[in-house]
Design a protein that fits this description.
Layout (H helix, E strand, L loop, with lengths): L2 H21 L12 H18 L3 H20 L8 H22 L11
Helix pairs in contact: 2-3, 2-4, 3-4
Length: 117
Amino acid sequence: MTAISKQLLILTLLAGTAGATSACERGRDDWLGRDKAAHFGASFAFGVAGSRLTTSPWEAVGLALIPGVAKELYDAGQDCNRFSWRDMGWNVAGAVAGVGGGYWMFGPSGVSWRVQF
């Protein structure tokens, strides 16, 4: 293979990867992006639910994170998408807040919204 042929092959491969990159250009993943509130809110709800299923805070947070991890793994398998650690950060924050709030609102040592008749 001549030097010109090698250079043309390399340029063709680079052009192909450049086109694929620009066609699937990823948006910025800011810490305060538009989907972060949804990650926090969903994980908060799962955190409250997890606090009702177990008395161990670690287990409750782990249960609350399962849907968020599954969603990010799904995203990682999609074209032009990726696993977002920033989304996971908001998932963890929501899960911890939800578990704490769940224990506070419904736990035996917290407010425990009970109605006596």
